Amino acid sequence: MRFSSARGLTLVELLVAMAILSVLAAAVLPVAEVTVRRTKEIELRRALREIRSAIDAYKEDYDKAVKDNTLPGGASLGDSGYPEDLETLVTGKDWGGPNKIKRKYLRRIPSDPFDEYGDGWGLRSYADDADSTVWGGEDVYDVYSQSGRTALDGTSYSTW
């Protein structure tokens, strides 16, 4: 009489394989979390750079329009030359001159990847202190993240 050998895994082999997979998964998860966080940090830096560059370009165009005396309505004494709000960077501004077109600085306002509560960007006006967390409302001179979280390098996202 011939016994056929059973093919497959024994319970012990299955448990050993599960234990090895568990150890590997436990080692990979922290690395994956850091990778996701680092990607969000890169996105935050890119968004801040994009908005700040748009604000600077707006200010340069304002200064050029004042210098060339093409600013519609003229420049008022207390006007800093910075946009009134972030939406102005999207809708654009007509700086006068021979071309009657609006110059747009952003296609859309980038979102803050660490904005947990939907507060959006923190704003500072030209008259505000450099580390102010309350927007004066006159214009937009700078933006910052309102997240209270700490970056991988130990700094607060709100100081970037």
Automatic annotation (TrEMBL):
* Record's keyword annotation contains Hydrolase: no
Report keywords, A-Z.
Answer: Methylation
May I have one GO cellular component term?
Answer: type II protein secretion system complex
Per the record, the GO terms for biological process are:
protein secretion by the type II secretion system
Instruction: Give the protein name, as stated in the record.
Output: Type II secretion system protein
Instruction: Name the source organism.
Output: Trichloromonas acetexigens
